[in-house]
Amino acid sequence: MDSHNLASAVPPPGGADDTQGRTVIAETAVAKVVGMAVRGVDGVHALGSGASRSIGAIREVVGATDLTQGVRVEVGESQVAVDIVLTAEYGYPLQTLANIVRAAIYSAVENLVGRDVIEVNIEITDVFIPAPDTEKPTSRARLADRFSTAAKPAGGQQGAVEPDAAAAEALPFQKVPAPPATGPTGPTQTGETP
């Protein structure tokens, strides 16, 4: 059974005489509240380990963001325990960042979920260091754009594909010259047929 789908019942305040029903809060719901609280803290670059962030990047491309990435919660009847894995941004003191993240989690869970937090364990696995502006590579055309530009047929020749100069410069490899054209008597020294 997936631990994110476990749920627990919260007894209503005031005892059994006030019972009008039972409230069940799933671990997935608590994990999402925690994930949103942590993502809102300045200095948190990303949640999750390297592998989970790679999978998360693929999910985001297709529009399916996982808000529980890097978050693990255990929900009891009236208490919650939280484990966080995150990457910090360079320039933020790590212990101070962990304390701010911890406070944000306590506040979010106690205010939005209505449970006491018994512990918050934080693992900072990496520090993100942005590339200096002077060393940023120039933006390159998207892969699909490069291939669609490179695959346009040359003027009048069926089946011939000749990328234009701009597309050739955007490709990550060197352009190989076309072989010399051959005619009925073979190629000339200039590559043209007689």
TrEMBL record:
This is Alkaline shock family protein YloU. It comes from Arthrobacter stackebrandtii. Belongs to the asp23 family. Residues 183-194 have a biased composition (Low complexity). It comes from the Bacteria. Residues 1-21, 147-194 are annotated as: Disordered. InterPro entries: Asp23. PANTHER family: ALKALINE SHOCK PROTEIN 23, HYPOTHETICAL CYTOSOLIC PROTEIN-RELATED. Transmembrane segments: none annotated.
